[in-house]
Design a protein that fits this description.
With 138 residues, the protein is mainly alpha-helical. Helix content is 62%, strand content 10%. It has six helices and three strands. The chain has a three-stranded antiparallel sheet. A hairpin with a 2-residue loop joins strand 2 and strand 3. The protein is flat, with a radius of gyration of 25 Å. The N and C termini lie far apart (69 Å). The C terminus is likely disordered.
Length: 138
């Protein structure tokens, strides 16, 4: 059981690095090629101080490697597994968001087709609200 605990701790640290949207943006900027800090700033729109803090953390965690060339520091993804993991999860999440947006759009058309007034709850507008029986007509 102690072996599993150690594995779970490592996995949690691994995911905690990726649990910040700013770091995912940085990873996205670096997934194709090595870049200098200025290029990372341009690609992500981050401020220098904010980017430096996240780059340092990602470097310490082993997600990124870095090298110095004169006055510039270049970063790249140290382990391609991070890129594949993020890409896989991002594709899944994007698909769910797209499906949810489509469902919301379809539902809004359904509501519009029922001639509901904007902001009126769906149940209040139905002739036969949920959980009420219609009277039987003979």
């Amino acid at each position: 059981m102690d072996d599993l605990h150690e594995v779970f701790e490592s996995v949690a640290r691994y995911f905690s690095v990726l649990g910040e949207p700013t770091r995912l943006r940085i990873l996205h900027a670096l997934c194709q090629e090595e870049r200098c800090v200025n290029d990372i700033l341009k690609a992500t729109g981050l401020a220098q101080a904010n980017a430096s803090r996240h780059l340092g953390l990602m470097y310490q965690a082993g997600v990124l490697s870095r090298r110095r060339d004169g006055n510039q520091i270049f970063y790249k993804v140290a382990d391609p597994m991070y890129v594949e993991l993020c890409r896989s999860v991002s594709v899944q999440v994007a698909g769910r968001i797209e499906s949810a947006a489509t469902a919301r759009e379809r539902f809004s058309h359904f509501v519009d087709d029922m001639n509901l007034h904007p902001g009126q709850p769906v149940r209040a507008s139905l002739k036969n609200p949920l959980n009420q029986k219609e009277s039987a007509s003979v």
